[in-house]
Amino acid sequence: MTTRETKIEHIDAGKKVGFSNLSDQEIYNFEETFGAHHYDRLHTVIRKTEGAWLYTQDGRKILDCLAAYSAANAGHHHPKIVAAAVEALQGHYSSVISNVVYTDLLALFCKRVSEMLPQLAPRFGSGGNKMLPKNGGVESVETAIKLMRYFGFKQKGIPDGKQEIIVFNNNFHGRMIAVISFSSSKLYKEGFGPLTPGYVSVPFGDIEAVKKAITPNTCGILVEPMQGEGGMYQPPAGFLKGLRELCDQHELLLVADEIQVGMGRTGKMFCFQHENVIPDAVVLGKAIAGGLAPVSVMVTNRELMDMTFKPGSDGSTFGGYPFACACGLAAIDVIEKEKLPERSAAMGKILKDKIDKIAARSPFVKEVRGKGLFIGIEVKSGDAMVFCRKLLDLDLLANDSHHHTIRISPPLIINDSEVDYIADRLEKVLVP
Ligand SMILES: Cc1ncc(COP(=O)(O)O)c(C=O)c1O
After folding, report:
1. Which domain holds residue 267?
2. Nearest 5 degrees, angle CA 260-CA 268-CA 287?
């Protein structure tokens, strides 16, 4: 693959970089004193980012193998996305504009996102897609839950309040109340009840279990085409096709949560494309605005969207505001024009081959799995963070997925020498 120029070669030790003059110690103290302790942060302060790299005050340059859980697929501080953001900020078009009037940026973003996807839910017509914008990913997952429930109520005649949605064990769709209600994680839900009913959870990849879970009240299936937080698992081949068939037979909506695995991450623009399956609705977030603005969308067939959402039945003050749309339009352009899905497939293959070889020599590795630049290394001890901390000491940022798996998920722009860098660090921590 072509090499990418990195402008920042290093940061001089001692030179202040970043937004403020706070020392690292002051930053730790402020966050720990005034911020909720809802993340177990690694003890490092990042002052500057560019491309695949993160920079610290003391001159360290760290390769980012987490990419903000896929939000930074296009790399950090991408010049084209930053330029679009600056143009929006300087164009007297930066603040939120009330959703009761139109803006060209939202109009363009709706069109771009709707047309970027294949015709969803084609059995409802081929008049195109529509999108509904929100901010964080979990909000758009909830929008999709509303879509499935309303479809069940209106189209299938399920009594309101009785709709059921099939989900999968070890799913991750965010951490607000509706979504944690069907999480398998005790930590996410204990003490946060009452939780919301209406979900049936079955093992990921088990099509027979899905069949058994379908009742006259089932209105949809919510699936991650590949589980990210749940441990980086691909379903068995044919599983998504099987879900599609069941949805067609039983008149259910199939919703793909592509928030982490979409936008090129697994070597295709959308992960469901690996199985040539067309969902009825798709949820996207994270990388859709280049990691510069929190933007998420729920996209579905025009007929379904119009049937479900009317003025007042949904909304979001910031959802689809001009700055976010400017970032989103630029990010989609970058992902398409720089062929980041193809790049992810090519660089992912090279990296996975190297990791497979390291794993074969490692006493610590249980299994390597993944697609594109979404690679999980499951460790026998079940404690992946032990290895992630050692990787950070070697200037590589990675974290665990579901405790037992090291997640290797760098920006999709990485080049050959950066792939070698990752392999070199993994070799050092995994092969004694
Ligand atoms: C598959 C999936 N769905 C939903 C979410 C929630 O997104 P957000 O954290 O932006 O609310 C995530 C976040 O990691 C995710 O991976």
Report:
1. 86-337
2. 35
Protein residues whose CB sits closer than 6 Å to any atom of ligand 1: 69, 136-138, 141, 172-174, 224, 228-229, 257, 259-260, 285
- Inside any domain, residue 195: yes
Q: Cα(257) to centroid of ligand 1, in Å? A: 9
Nearest CA to ligand 1 atom 16: 260
pLDDT at 9: 47
286 is catalytic: yes
Residues 279 and 416 reside in one and the same domain: no
Question: How much distance in Å is there from the Cα of 432 to the middle of ligand 1?
Answer: 35
For the stretch 351-408, pLDDT in tens is 999 999 999 999 999 999 999 999 999 999 999 999 999 999 999 999 999 999 999 9
Measured in angstroms, how far is the CA atom of residue 417 from the centroid of ligand 1?
Answer: 30
**Residue 354 falls inside a structural domain:** yes
Q: Is 24 a catalytic residue?
A: no
**Closest ligand 1 atom number to CA of residue 260:** 16
Do residue 320 and residue 366 come from a single domain? Answer: no
Q: What percent of the chain has pLDDT above 70?
A: 96
Q: If you take atom 2 of ligand 1, which residue's CA is the nearest one?
A: 173
Say how many Å lie between the CA of residue 172 and the centre of ligand 1.
Answer: 7
Domain check: are 52 and 160 in the same one?
no
Is 172 known to be catalytic? yes
Domain-terminating residue out of 318, 337, 356: 337
Query: What's the structural domain count of the chain?
Result: 2
